[in-house]
């Protein structure tokens, strides 16, 4: 599970809110904007539903990166869910480092229902940015030991 | 024990063209929890649905996965299908192998592998889904229509004629919107106000319609069937219940130099005024920025109501003295009310783009370079010149006029990328109106393309060109230069013959783009609806749900959804009304069972959940001598913020429980 992997594209888990970002991902499809095929989308009602535990669990599962996308500030279908997400995930990022996962492996952004192109770009650039971890042990501690 | 049935859709070649669907069905069929797995050309077709229904019975399936398009598209279809075959409708999950797989993956093998993985995840997930029942809620059968332009009026009238109450909210002093400002309408040239004002009066007199002028929507709470809409009326300083609309106050007002918004900035009005003679309601409004009695005490734009606390009783007071009804109230603080509504129609229209960024055209600086709306006012009999088409600079009739199309439209560098849709037609109309006012004059239209796809529209353009001798020149105008003699030289190009052209004109009219209202985004945020990259409100589906929004119970009408002419705005107004009436035809509304629930035995009563709840849906409750959190299902909207915040995992969100999400993300 934690062996050096990422043979091809980095494996990305994407939590997308139903109202904006999941619809944005759908629009990427409708508009035929392609992105790396190793992205796995999990629909959540709101980015505020994303429990930091889900992020950690994803890394335990062996994903190379976790993407969370919600509605733009002010546009949350549930008013304030994306703000809760932003705060929680900022803390989660710091915790990732504490437990030895590089914080750059997690990315939080806004994707609206109209931003199909942006979603495809976010996936592509995030996957690209994760490639720097290719062949490296999944945790910072293992990486330090390897040196 | 879960017995999952998996149904892989080809969607013609949309999926099967990229994904080896037979292989997906075969591999998924090997999963221990999967009792049946198959593929079919069109799963959403009647035979496809029958296939699902029959398989449920034949194989004793108790969980279903349909791998097809986005669940946003067809989840309700398959929910109904399985409900008919006796399964609870929430025991289904969809794998999105079209929008999020076949359409976004270039390589066929990769797409097949991804599809297998996506379906596998849903098959795992669905085994953890529980049967759920919808929550029944009552419907408040009153609609709030936001915006009193022609689209909003149409929606309000249709809903009211259907026997339901309507509260028609208009931010300006009168109904009418942009259409009231127009002179004549294409392609028939019938007088805009003559066909609009009867509708305005009908709305005002309709027993089912209440009009709230000078009012905006401040806050929207609740949900479909049970919205709570907070309306804010700005201070008008005229008591509408007393005013008899005699207009004496307007004649006595000494402030005569207020720029007239209704006349698009051409001409002046008083500080107390009704916007136009046929205004509905006809109640004048004091403009507190200009009123001698009020402005000095404020010294700036009065934005907050606190400002009103300092109004001194000094100076002027002419309107108060003359008013026979005692309707003037300088201390008016505006008013706020909260109304209950089952549905909301948003019909807030558009605004004309300011041509100020086009300094090369002098749109905001040269007196005789007008916008389309200014030209409408200039030729209108209720306009600043009483309908005499003369130059604002010197009052002379323009002998040569140039119409410049696509100012701000189809121009991503300075304006908007989209086509405003109405300018080709209104420019042809302007050219005709000009010829009718100045038969000896010459009109030129500088265009990029002429777009006239409506009924009788092309004939109208031909009429302008062939019968009224309007000269059409294909090319984008480069510059408008003001010359010493007060005329304007328009530099353009005739791309059909490939040479530069310059025209000396007395007046230039810019077909300014249609753009969203400046407050469109903030209203969208208040309503919880979304808007596109251009700022127009987004419909639920671009073809099949053109008046719905992603937020249930909120509907769109008119140009707030995209540039539209009058016929299209009226159509959409009626369409939105039909949706509202269909909603109100139900006695109760079925609300999604996606609500949170607290396991009181695990709850410590910290109430972090209540703190993050946007809907105040979590209350404190006494259980076995302890204070614990409790979710009011009717209020809960199912966002899951509480479930994510609970440190003890005592809160579970139905349909998105930790178990369900974890199963789906397992590799």
Helix percent of chain A reads 40-55%
Specify the structural class of chain B: alpha/beta
How far is the first residue's CA from the last residue's CA of chain B?
A: 22 Å
Strand content of chain B: 15-25%
Largest interface: A-B, 52 and 53 residues
CATH-derived topology of the largest domain in chain B: FAD/NAD(P)-binding domain
Say which CATH homologous superfamily of the largest domain in chain B is assigned.
FAD/NAD(P)-binding domain
Poorly predicted sequence stretches spanning 5 or more consecutive residues of chain B: 302-313
**Helix-strand pattern of chain A, N to C?**
EHEHEHEHH
- Major sheet characteristics of chain A: 4 strands, parallel
Can you count the beta strands of chain B?
Answer: 34
Helix content of chain B: 25-40%
Description:
- The complex is a heterodimer of chains A (147) and B (667).
- Chain A is α/β, with parallel strands linked by helices.
- Chain A has one domain: Rossmann fold, CATH 3.40.50.
- Chain A has helices spanning 21-30, 52-61, 81-98, 116-130, 140-146; strands spanning 12-17, 39-44, 65-70, 106-110.
- A four-stranded parallel β-sheet of chain A has the order 2-1-3-4, sandwiched between helices.
- Chain A is globular, with a radius of gyration of 15 Å.
- With 667 residues, chain B is an alpha/beta fold.
- Chain B folds into five domains: 4-126, Rossmann fold (3-Layer(aba) Sandwich), CATH 3.40.50; 135-234 and 334-349 and 522-589, 3-Layer(bba) Sandwich (FAD/NAD(P)-binding domain), CATH 3.50.50.60; 248-332, no CATH class; 352-515, 3-Layer(bba) Sandwich (FAD/NAD(P)-binding domain), CATH 3.50.50.60; 592-665, 2-Layer Sandwich (Alpha-Beta Plaits).
- Chain B contains 19 helices and 34 strands.
- A five-stranded parallel β-sheet of chain B has the order 10-7-6-18-29.
- In chain B, α2 packs parallel to α6 (108-126) and α3 (46-58) packs across α4 (71-84).
- Chains A and B meet through α1, β2, α2 and α3 of A and α5, α6, α15, α18 and α19 of B.
